[in-house]
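User: New here, any thoughts?
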Amino acid sequence: MRVTRDHEDSAVRLYYLYENTTLKPLDSDSDRHYGAACLDLKEMDSGQAYLEGVYWTNRNWHKALNTAGKITLKRSK
C-alpha cells in the first residue's frame, strides 16, 4: 500500500495490492487471484470523505474473464 499527495493540488491518492484465496471456488472461479486499485480521496458536499477510482484483478485471466472497473467506497453509519 502507498499513499501519495499531489504537489500541485494536495490531492491524496491510495494505491494498494492484494491477494485473495477462495477456499471453495466454483468451477467458474479461481482458487487464488491478485488485484490492485488506485483510489482518490474525495469529499462530498456534506463533508464526508470517500474513496473513488479504478481496480483490476487477474481473476480468471486464463479464461479471459479478468475483472476491472470503477469503484467508490463510502463509510456506512
